[in-house]
Design brief:
about 425 residues; alpha/beta; Rossmann fold; GMP Synthetase, Chain A, domain 3; five-stranded parallel β-sheet; four-stranded antiparallel β-sheet; 20 strands; binds zinc ion; ANL_N_sf; AMP-bd_C_sf; Phenylacetate--CoA ligase; PA_CoA_ligase; phenylacetate-CoA ligase activity
Length: about 425
């Protein structure tokens, strides 16, 4: 077996074959939701569309979008395309509003998810020789299960530690000889910090040589730093509850964009305001996904809220023919509008990490106390600094940010381990205290 591919045939299909599969599957999906899902039946009819109107992939743009709000307002079972007794599993994300976004799986879905996840993990170099530790939680959150299903299919030795209990995680890595891990980006930070507290040098004392990181955007500077600290290769895996979870694609060893498994997902990038497909090459916009093989809950043109861009359709040197997208730079809703400048907190991270004395832990707060938007960036230093060093660093970082964004935030360099840590789930890096 070729260890670089999970399914060499599927992953290296000629582009025209992929398009043919996509069209056939798109037509099947539209037919299924038209027949079985009242929500889509109503939407398609309102647009005067019948499944037979889909005769080429260019008809995709005529189909209606599905938003997160649509999924929520159809909670719990409004978007189910199969009888409930065929469902074998549910996952959901709760979001900030409290109304869940569910995803249901039939056995066919479990098989598809395992397949795309196995392809992704294999692209990251995971084989059956690996001891694979899963640090995202195995529960309603999709993170743990997505990795579990892929690694199970590959036949790796799975260590399903789930989230939290960080000291024990590090001990287990040493005791069982973990070689690969999956984690949320901020949790990799936490693991690093706790390992150091325990006197463990990850590069020297642990055998973890590969991390598959998802669920939070991270900067290239973060990747470079963590790769060095652990002497490992770091892969970026996109995914969300609505597309199963981690596994819809991954960056290959060349780390140049994320391959999306196009026989399972049909992707577009649209202007988040107008919903029109972006026209310029590499123009950023919102990722829109139509699921081509989901059984229980297929989605047409799902507005993911993730910001990215399409690579041109050229081939990647790794041999995979599936189209690449840029690494997710943030969420449409997380975009910070500050004094007329739009940006994502992850851009700030990349600027912070250019300063070797600053750590990966930071919080960005925006307030409007004085009537004008003010930004306060608190970032931890890597060691205790004297007041002069601290001021020097604060000024340097202010300058770096000003050069990029043309505004100067208040920068506070704080002592190591003084900002709040997250053991389970995603870190809260941005706090908006503005009065609207
Ligand atoms: Zn590639």
């Amino acid at each position: 077996m070729d260890q670089r591919f999970w399914d060499r045939h599927a992953e290296t299909l000629p582009k025209e074959d992929i398009r043919e599969i996509q069209l056939r599957r798109l037509r099947e999906v539209v037919e299924r939701v038209y027949t079985n899902v009242g929500f889509y039946n109503t939407k398609l009819k309102a647009l005067g569309l019948h499944p037979s109107d889909v005769s080429s992939l260019s008809d995709l743009v005529r189909l209606p979008f599905t938003t997160k709000a649509d999924i929520r307002s159809n909670y719990p079972f409004g978007l189910l395309a199969t009888p409930k007794n065929q469902v074998v599993e549910v996952h959901m994300s709760s979001g900030t509003t409290g109304v869940p976004t569910p995803n249901y799986l039939t056995l066919k879905d479990v098989e598809n998810w395992s397949e795309v996840s196995a392809r992704s993990l294999t692209a990251a170099g995971v084989t059956r020789e690996d001891v694979f530790q899963i640090t995202p939680s195995l529960g309603l959150f999709t993170g743990g299960f997505g990795f579990f299903y892929g690694a199970r299919k590959i036949g790796a030795f799975i260590v399903p530690t789930g989230a939290g209990n960080t000291k024990r995680q590090v001990e287990i890595m040493r005791e069982l000889g973990t070689t690969s891990i999956s984690a949320i980006a901020s949790y990799l930070n936490r693991l690093t910090e706790v390992a150091h507290e325990m006197g463990v040098d990850p590069a020297r004392d642990l055998g973890v040589r590969r991390a598959i990181i998802g669920s939070e955007p991270f900067s290239e500077e973060f990747r470079a730093r963590m790769s060095k600290t652990w002497a490992m290769d770091i892969y970026d895996i996109p995914g969300m509850t609505e597309t199963y979870g981690p596994g819809m694609g991954i960056d290959c060893y060349l780390h140049d964009g994320l391959h999306i498994w196009e026989d399972h997902y049909l992707i577009e990038v649209v202007d988040p305001k107008t919903g029109e497909p972006v026209t310029k090459s590499e123009e950023r916009g919102e990722l829109v996904v139509t699921t081509l093989t989901k059984d229980a809950m297929p989605l047409l043109r799902y507005r993911t809220g993730d910001v990215t861009y399409l690579y041109d359709d050229g081939e990647c040197e790794c041999g995979r023919t599936h189209r690449r997208i840029g690494r997710i730079s943030g969420r449409v809703d997380d975009m910070i509008k500050f004094r007329g400048v739009n940006f994502w907190p992850s851009y700030i991270e990349s600027l912070i990490l250019r300063h070797p004395d600053l750590s990966e832990e930071y919080v960005l707060e925006v307030t409007s106390q004085s009537g004008l938007d003010e930004m306060i960036l608190k970032v931890e230093s890597k060691r205790i600094l004297d007041p002069a060093e601290r001021r020097r660093l604060e000024n340097e970082l202010k300058e770096t940010i000003n050069k990029h964004f043309y505004f100067t935030p208040t920068v506070m360099v704080v002592d190591p381990k003084t900002l709040p840590r997250v053991e389970v789930g995603k870190a809260k890096r941005f706090v908006d205290k503005r009065v609207r």
